[in-house]
Design goal:
single chain; alpha+beta; Arc Repressor Mutant, subunit A; three-stranded mixed beta sheet; two-stranded antiparallel sheet; 7 strands
Length: 107
């Protein structure tokens, strides 16, 4: 199963590796208006851990605690990933911006 984590540059404790069970490649959702594609605005990227948390909790129906166990991270980290993912999705819908789902780069 693919694993993902932020880059290791910078100060502080290295981020914990997140287990990503979904096998989604790079996906781009572009808004249309009356059949016309408007891709002039800057896209919003959904990180692999945000996508996985959204998938596990809202699609698969797991609790945040169960999702945290499946991803090998804390419940608080799942909460932050859900919060960031929801905020990005709503922002993209309101501002009519493309959404890019990035695949995990590390395995």
């Amino acid at each position: 199963m693919p694993k993902w984590r932020w880059s290791l540059s910078g100060r502080g404790r290295p981020p914990k590796v997140r287990l990503i069970r979904s096998r989604v490649g790079r996906v781009v959702f572009v808004p249309t208006s009356k059949g016309n594609v408007d891709s002039k605005s800057k896209p919003i990227s959904i990180r692999p851990d945000e996508f996985e948390a959204l998938r596990l909790v809202y699609l698969e129906g797991y609790t945040q605690e169960e999702a945290a166990e499946l991803m090998h991270i804390s419940r608080g980290t799942v909460w932050r990933a859900l919060n960031n993912g929801r905020r990005k999705l709503v922002q993209a819908l309101i501002e009519k911006r493309p959404i890019v789902v990035e695949p995990p780069l590390r395995s």
